[in-house]
Amino acid sequence: MEATASAVSFALPSSTKIQTCHILNRPINPFNTPTSWKPSPTFKPLRINAAISRTKKEETVETVRKQLENCYLLAGINYKGLTVKQFQELRKTLPETTKLIVAKNTLVYKAVEGTQWETLKPCMKGMNVWLFVHTEEIPAAIKPYRDFQKEKKLEDNDFTGAVFEGKFYGPDEFKKLETLPTRAEIYANLLGSLKSPASALVSTLQAPARELVMVLNAHVKNLEEQAQGAAQ
Predict the structure, then answer these.
(1) DSSP H or E segment with residue 16
(2) Radius of gyration (Cα) for the chain, nearest Å?
(3) In the chain, what is the greatest distance between 2 CA atoms, to the nearest angstrom?
(4) Pairing mode, if any, of strands 159-164 and 98-102?
(5) Is the model's pLDDT at 63 over the cut of 90?
(6) Contact between residue 87 and residue 80 where contact means Cβ atoms under 8 Å apart
(7) How far, in Å, are 73, 93, 206 from residue 142 at the CA level?
(8) pTM (2 decimals)?
């Protein structure tokens, strides 16, 4: 890198003769940062942002896993087009035994992968909000959303699928979930079967595992109450 010279001409006050001198210019090093340089206010450290994004994803996955504890049913609902106000109203209509969470399909699948909930995969597309039901009373847990859907005329915001007892239910099968017998109905069915002919009891024993367990528990409870009454 070489210095350059510039010629400058000027006249002295005491003489009319024009004097010429050469000024040596110092070369500019292109690798030196100007002293006046300041970072752009819009500059953002990409690595930090990536770390924060990864942390949020991990938190979402952990939240979903926590909700799966003591969960009886997990359902997806198409929420495309729902306004913030409608979403807030929906949350208020749901019972305490249910939880509504917005999460990306990929993160939810990561949380359910390798579990009985993995069968939910067919509805892992589009925009879903996830309904976690923490009660055996499935129809009562689903009904508030059905009522909200009808009231707000949200025909397009239907259930995209659900998993109950490890089985996947598509949108056209939700009627089966919405008409499941309640705990009281199952108890009554058991007590009636025990007093009926053997054929009725056999029919009860052939019911789904959930109903059978609840029926047997009801019978045990009934026997315990009778024993306590006899002891008194």
Answers:
(1) none
(2) 37
(3) 138
(4) unpaired
(5) yes
(6) no
(7) 10, 11, 26
(8) 0.62
